């Protein structure tokens, strides 16, 4: 049985109505057999206030989609296809990772001056309250009008202490300025002095320096020299047991 619609030619899937599947569902949907096309809305607004424009050929339109956020389209026209940088942290981005941020937080205001490219992290955290207000258990310190947690102060380039050291000082009752910039004190009460950085390994206090023909190296350095078959620990043992430096390094066998 063939569909009763003129020039259709398909097999009638619904015998009682003598209609193919296509025309049967057109009749159920629209009340007639004509094709009713629904044109896409030129623009719409979602429940958060973001404006979307029908632009299936736009470079930012995702595969299988036909709408693009107006805020992204405006920013794309201004800065181009990228790559670009986050305006807050400077991290490199592409349009797959870039987010178009509304500076005044009004999602309906898509003027160019109100939009800026941000990475996902900065766009998420920029409107969050400071950690000093957000974390009830945080130890908060104030210096020169700046209020931060101990962990945030530890990341300040002016501060040479860890967050744990700052918290420890605060619990001992020191002032905020002393907590941040006071001199380091060791566990026995003496002032901490940074160790001198040596240029040569044999200058270190725990190194075993060996001089052979005017050349000074550590036991480990001599052990890596070509022709030396004794390990570093073996050279150290020989030196401590009274061997001559050249014999300790180059002599094969266990006995002098």
Please write out the topology:
Layout: H1 21-30, E1 43-45, E2 51-54, E3 67-69, H2 70-79, E4 84-85, E5 92-93, E6 99-102, E7 115-118, H3 120-125, H4 131-134, E8 140-143, E9 146-149, H5 150-154, H6 163-171, H7 176-181, E10 209-212, E11 215-218, H8 219-223, H9 232-240, H10 245-250
Antiparallel strand pairs: 1-2, 2-3, 4-5, 6-7, 8-9, 10-11
Mean pLDDT: 84
Note the run of SSEs as H and E: HEEEHEEEEHHEEHHHEEHHH
- Output the strand order for the largest sheet: 1-2-3
The biggest beta sheet is recorded as: 3 strands, antiparallel
With helices defined by DSSP (H or I, 4 residues minimum), what is the helix count? 10
Gyration radius, in Å: 38 Å
Strand content: 5-15%
Please bin the fraction of helical residues: 25-40%
Helix- and strand-based class? Answer: alpha+beta
Task: Explain how this protein is built.
There is one protein chain. The protein is α+β, with helices and mostly antiparallel strands and 256 residues long. It contains ten helices and eleven strands. It has helices at 21-30, 70-79, 120-125, 131-134, 150-154, 163-171, 176-181, 219-223, 232-240, 245-250; strands at 43-45, 51-54, 67-69, 84-85, 92-93, 99-102, 115-118, 140-143, 146-149, 209-212, 215-218. The strands form five sheets. Strands 1-2-3 form a three-stranded antiparallel β-sheet. The protein has a two-stranded antiparallel sheet with strand order 4-5. Strand 8 (140-143) and strand 9 (146-149) form a beta hairpin. The mean pLDDT is 84.
